[in-house]
Amino acid sequence: MKNIAETGRQMSAINLKDNINPQRENQRQKQKNATRRLIVETALKLFALKGFTATTTASISKEAGVSHGTIFAHFKTQEELLAAVIDEFGNRINLRLHELAGGKNGVKEVLEAHIRGLEECENFYTRLVTEHRLLPPGARNTFVLIQSAISFHISQALERDISEGRVKNLPVHLVFNGWIGLLHHYLTNNDLFSPGGSVLQRYGQELVQYYMDLITRTSG
């Protein structure tokens, strides 16, 4: 009798589990995803404002309006949260590059798309540039992957422009590193070039044109 009762209890539990409303489960998952997005968005904003080392999970939970434990229900460690935020930033940049410079565009169009994509998260990207050596290995690797994706877009466009005689036959690594170096110089010195404002909005188009003048093939 005891075994029958136990079997019945187990079957009831299974039936109860099977009868869970799918809509309720979907709603629960939607809420979970929404909370995760909220945490990532809030962390991105605070990292941009205060920096990576000065921003704590406690300040993120307070700003997001969730409990401190909720942060760790979605991310096991602060490093994991940081990597997720950088990954989200990278997805946005890649999406913008695909939207604005997909297809058979040249180097100029890719650089312009890069500028416009970075404008949307300029403060966060500036933090990445200035503090990337302080990042934990996982987050730093994510940042490297983002730069590699940008390099790929530039290399594809450079190959087309070289084959059509529009730009000089230069190695991809020099073109990419030269562009990144110029861009990072202005961003890391934003207090000199555009105090209180956006460096990319003020100088973005000028930087693109200057760089294109350097790599464009001249006739004769």
Structure description:
The chain has helices spanning 2-18, 22-50, 57-64, 68-74, 78-101, 107-119, 122-131, 137-163, 172-188, 190-193, 199-215. The protein is elongated. The N and C termini lie far apart (99 Å). Helix 2 crosses helix 3 (57-64) and helix 5 (78-101) packs across helix 6 (107-119). The protein has 220 residues and is mainly α. The chain contains eleven helices and no strands. Residues 1-17 have low confidence and may be disordered.
Fold topology:
Blueprint: H1 2-18, H2 22-50, H3 57-64, H4 68-74, H5 78-101, H6 107-119, H7 122-131, H8 137-163, H9 172-188, H10 190-193, H11 199-215
Helix pairs in contact: 2-3, 2-5, 2-7, 5-6, 5-8, 6-8, 6-11, 8-9, 9-11
Short overview:
Helices cover about 80% and strands about 0% of the residues. It contains eleven helices and no strands.
